[in-house]
Design brief:
By secondary structure, this protein is an alpha/beta fold. The chain contains 8 helices and 9 strands. The chain has 2 domains: 35 residues; 190 residues, Rossmann fold. The strands form 2 sheets. It has a 7-stranded mixed β-sheet, with helices on both faces. The chain has a two-stranded antiparallel ribbon with strand order 1-2. Strand 3, helix 4 and strand 4 form a beta-alpha-beta unit. The longest helix has 26 residues. The radius of gyration is 23 Å and the shape is elongated.
């Protein structure tokens, strides 16, 4: 006698109830996510994930979402570090820690430190670099890591660089949802870049280098900040769209 096909048999009542509850929960979750996206909340905040070079980082309200433009600067830094014996690397304005995690994952063999002053962002930073050998420092970058003064090989930063007056022109996804402290930096957008230059001058050993992202309309202004502080070999670099995006310089 052929046994009945189990796939045609009705589910027991308790299993039907569990399936209906699960489906209802999925629908409610989908509707909630759709409503948040309709309100222009960034997709990365909805999924809780952002992708950067070869790594994946957790993100959410309170932390800046890493962008593809920063991947080029990070690649430049990794290439510069390659072959050096246990270099000391400091990331300023670390946010989610995407840069530090990419360096640790793709290169490794570095003494890495990531500095972030905002508590909400620092929570994501700690989560993302856990187990990667990156020391997290919750501090204002201006005062961070005095014990490393004159000993660092590479300082890298994606600081806020949007002029305060440009806020109305930003997409609402960015303006209304990402933390303002990670976006805006004075009337010219250079306030944080100036601090990065000052901190790099303090931290770097002679011959050490700094890489700092800037806006695509700051291709002359940002390099001038480092030139004014006596850095050598100041050079600007383009991003994936061939727009001015980051400056590098060497401590004399």
């Amino acid at each position: 006698m052929t046994p009945p096909d189990e796939t045609t048999q009705p589910l027991p009542p308790h299993e039907q109830r569990l399936l209906a509850e699960h489906a209802h929960g999925d629908v409610a979750l989908f509707e909630s996510l759709a409503a948040r996206r309709a309100a222009r909340e960034p997709l990365q905040y909805l999924t809780g994930t952002a992708y950067f070079r070869t790594v994946e980082v957790a993100v959410g309200p309170g932390v800046f979402i890493p962008r593809p433009e920063t991947e080029v600067m990070t690649g430049w830094a990794i290439d510069w570090l390659r072959g050096r014996d246990y270099p000391v690397v400091v990331e300023l304005c670390a946010g989610s820690g995407a840069i530090s995690l990419a360096v640790a994952t793709e290169l490794g063999g570095c003494d890495q430190h990531a500095v972030e002053r905002d508590a909400a962002a620092a929570a994501y930073l700690r989560r993302n670099v856990a187990g990667a050998g990156v020391a997290v420092v919750e501090s204002d970058m201006a005062d961070a890591l005095p014990e490393l003064d004159g000993r660092v090989d590479l300082v890298i930063a994606n600081p806020p660089y949007i002029p305060d007056g440009d806020a109305p022109a930003l997409p609402s996804d960015v303006r209304d949802h990402e933390p303002p402290a990670s976006l805006f930096s004075g009337s010219q957008g250079l306030d944080a870049i100036r601090v990065v230059a000052d901190v790099a001058a303090r931290l770097l050993r002679p011959g050490g280098v700094v890489a700092c992202e800037h806006g695509d309309d700051q291709g002359a202004l940002a390099p001038s900040v480092f030139e004014a502080r006596g850095f050598a070999d100041v050079a600007d670099h383009a991003d994936l769209t061939r727009r001015p995006r980051f400056v590098t310089a060497r401590r004399r």
